[in-house]
Backbone:
């Protein structure tokens, strides 16, 4: 018998019972339960019953319930996936029908209709409870039979715990139960709400994290995965739960945002592994959107390096504030095309897309940039164009100087010439006490835009560390190495870095641009530093693998120009508070504009000579704190 049912379910598992069959089943339950109720009321003595009147009343009651089912759509649910929502709808509809029938009985009695011609209130009440119970049992029995026999179809069983015994937790539970690839068994819910502890949800116990996330409980119940089903969970609490789960060698997944659900429905396939970015990020920053809106709205915005990680996110955020026009400048045509396609196809940008201009151009091309400024007359410039890869620029100092220094000078000078109101430059923590060509060239760029800040154009510099998931950053590299089976390479076991999410960094750039009045270098609160070796271990565990066993971590040695830790301020600098708790203003030494221009002229002449050592030596004269680290240019420091 079991094998016959199993073959039947296996063959027809993709098909669902017609809702009309469900309706007729419910109608049959209503009719049969009324007859049974009356028989019980009269102690199963047929002589006490008047059958014609019984048939008439039972038909009337069945008709009223049927109308209730149709209006309430109680028969539209899929029986094998019956949940609390389906049962709740049945209970509400049945209660309403019972109250309607009860009111009819009371009115009939007030009109002196013979009691024998109407149903009694007691019979209606018993019938209501019996009908509701039988409808519940029919659905739950079908679901139980389906789940039991589908479990025996050779599907692999996976045991879960779900963090969050709320509405999202129920959605995850239903999604797991509907999965046809695996038999997903939820052992327990975890919740921090004390009022839910030791209760059950869909028959599954709700327990504390301390009880569930223990080796004994995990081993006893053979749990292999944890799903986080609380979307607004505090960042610190989320990181704590994930760390405990990883220590127990559990795979950790989370629920994607609602707008990413397919056709508004959550499925097991959409549950995704928690990403390292979610653990390194911090609680959301509260921004003064009105302040940013006043800064951006109806302005003509230019973004250089617009196709890069930071530049593209600045574009996305700026578009939310309805600028008059946005000019996107980048020399990389493929990434710029990808950004164009993204903005063109996303609904939220449809209304403003016509005001976006995409230009393939290099900031180091003075004549091309002058043409762009002359044509579009930007009023606000976000200068994100730069070469940022430390080892690569150590090998190509010519390009670092051309783009980071002279590209910035060109765009900054044109901003003054064409009356740009605000110029916001994106800098880096590597400009502080630089140990590499990239950082030193960015420091010169900082010095130049600061020196220009005494005029009508307000020049503002924003300085922050690494951003999570940016092009060329360590996290995409580690992710790729893990996907390839390892090894994961770290340059040094003790190297640490500050991290910030791309949206968070760009939010603060907009805020700093709005609050700046010219000449400031704003330093962002980067939170706590992260040890890169620990980062690699956590990413491996998040992938469901074991560091040192499944994936090896190999030290490759510091790269040219790299240092163990980054700083946001030099020894000669300190900061003062601003009105925003995440943004501080650096006090830095100032430079004379004419003197700096003379030094840049000499730097340009050295550039033409094509001698990298002479070029870097000239940079070191301009930035005395620049000391090369693990680089061929270290000999210049010894000579000096």
Residues:
């Amino acid at each position: 018998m079991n094998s016959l049912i199993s073959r039947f379910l296996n063959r027809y598992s993709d098909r669902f019972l017609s809702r009309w069959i469900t309706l007729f089943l419910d109608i049959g339950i209503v009719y049969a339960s009324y007859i049974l109720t009356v028989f019980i009321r009269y102690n199963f003595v047929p002589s006490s019953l008047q059958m014609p009147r019984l048939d008439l009343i039972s038909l009337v009651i069945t008709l009223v319930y049927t109308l209730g089912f149709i209006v309430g759509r109680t028969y539209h649910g899929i029986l094998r996936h019956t949940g609390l929502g389906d049962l709740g709808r049945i209970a509400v509809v049945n209660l309403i029908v019972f109250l309607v029938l009860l009111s009819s009985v009371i009115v009939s009695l007030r009109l002196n209709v013979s009691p024998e011609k109407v149903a009694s209130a007691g019979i209606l009440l018993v019938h209501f409870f019996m009908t509701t119970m039988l409808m519940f049992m029919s659905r739950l029995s079908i679901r139980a039979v389906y789940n039991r026999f589908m479990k025996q179809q050779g599907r692999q069983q996976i045991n879960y715990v779900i963090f969050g015994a709320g509405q999202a937790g129920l959605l995850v539970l239903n999604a797991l139960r509907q999965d046809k690839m695996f038999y997903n068994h939820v052992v327990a819910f975890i919740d921090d709400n004390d009022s839910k502890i030791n209760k059950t949800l869909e028959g599954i116990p709700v327990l504390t994290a301390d009880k569930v996330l223990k080796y004994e409980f995990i081993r006893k119940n053979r749990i292999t995965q944890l799903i986080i089903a609380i979307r607004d969970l505090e960042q610190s609490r989320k990181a704590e739960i994930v760390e405990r789960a990883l220590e127990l060698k559990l795979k950790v997944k989370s629920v994607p945002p609602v707008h990413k659900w397919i056709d508004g429905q959550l499925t097991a396939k959409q549950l995704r592994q928690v990403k390292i970015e979610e653990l390194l990020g911090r609680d959301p920053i509260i921004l003064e959107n009105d302040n940013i809106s006043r800064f951006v709205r109806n302005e003509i915005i230019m973004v250089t390096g617009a196709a890069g990680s930071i530049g593209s996110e600045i574009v996305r955020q700026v578009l939310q504030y309805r600028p008059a026009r946005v000019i996107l400048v980048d020399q990389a045509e493929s990434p710029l095309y990808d950004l164009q396609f993204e903005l063109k196809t996303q609904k939220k940008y449809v209304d403003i897309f016509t005001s976006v201009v995409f230009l393939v151009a290099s900031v180091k091309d003075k004549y091309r940039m002058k043409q762009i400024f002359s044509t579009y007359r930007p009023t606000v410039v976000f200068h994100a164009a730069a070469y940022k890869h430390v080892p690569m620029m150590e090998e190509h100092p010519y390009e670092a100087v051309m783009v980071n220094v002279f590209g910035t000078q060109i765009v900054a000078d044109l901003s003054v010439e064409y009356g740009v109101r605000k110029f916001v430059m994106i800098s880096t923590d590597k400009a502080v006490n630089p140990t590499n060509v990239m950082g030193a060239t960015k420091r010169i760029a900082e010095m130049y835009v600061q020196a220009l800040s005494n005029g009508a154009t307000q020049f503002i510099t924003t300085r922050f560390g690494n951003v999570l998931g940016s092009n060329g950053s360590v996290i995409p590299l580690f992710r790729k190495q893990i996907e390839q089976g390892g090894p994961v390479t770290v340059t040094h076991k003790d190297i640490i870095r500050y991290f910030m999410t791309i949206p968070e960094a760009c939010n603060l750039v907009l805020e700093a641009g709005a609050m700046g009045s010219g000449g400031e270098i704003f330093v962002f609160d980067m939170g706590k530093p992260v040890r890169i070796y620990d980062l690699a271990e956590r990413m491996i565990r998040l992938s469901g693998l074991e560091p040192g066993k499944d994936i090896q971590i190999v030290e490759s040695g510091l790269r040219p120009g790299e240092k163990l830790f980054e700083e946001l301020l030099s020894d000669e600098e300190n900061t003062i508070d601003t009105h925003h708790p995440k943004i501080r203003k650096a006090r830095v030494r100032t430079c004379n504009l004419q003197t700096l221009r003379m030094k840049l002229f000499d730097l340009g002449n050295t550039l033409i000579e094509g001698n990298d050592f002479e070029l870097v030596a000239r940079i070191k004269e301009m930035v005395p704190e620049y000391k090369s680290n693990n680089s061929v240019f270290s000999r210049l420091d010894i000579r000096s």
